[in-house]
Amino acid sequence: MAEQAGAARIRLAAEEQLRKDFPYLNTAALEELLDQITLVAEVGLKKRARAMRRSKARISFFSLPAELRNEI
């Protein structure tokens, strides 16, 4: 689920940037490109989901910057 949401946000950001940088790119080509970007992002995030979960579990409170530790 998080992977799909992340890929959707990447798609929105990519669409905004592509429309700004390539204003004459036709809509069909833009949609095809955005579909490819979204697919690659989602697959890549799904492949790395397990590693991200393991990494998150290892984060120590004391590895946080002092400013954050003091806020907590």
Briefly characterize the structure.
The protein is mainly alpha-helical and 72 residues long. It has helices at residues 2-21, 27-58, 66-71.
Number of helices: 3
Mean pLDDT: 89
Classify the helix fraction into a percent range.
over 70%
Largest sheet: none
Order of helices and strands: HHH
Structural class assignment: mainly alpha
Shape label: elongated
CA radius of gyration: 18 Å
Would you identify the regions where 5 or more consecutive residues have pLDDT less than 50? none
Total tally of structural domains: 1
- Give the terminus-to-terminus CA distance: 29 Å
How large a portion of the residues is in β-strands, by DSSP E? under 5%
Number of strands: 0
SSE layout:
Blueprint: H1 2-21, H2 27-58, H3 66-71
Helix pairs in contact: 1-2
Keywords:
72 residues, 81% helix, mainly alpha
Describe the structure.
By secondary structure, this protein is mostly helical. It is 81% helix and 0% strand. It is built from 3 helices and no strands. The mean pLDDT is 89. The chain has one domain (2-71). The longest helix has 32 residues, at 27-58. The protein starts with a helix and ends with a helix. α1 crosses α2 (27-58).
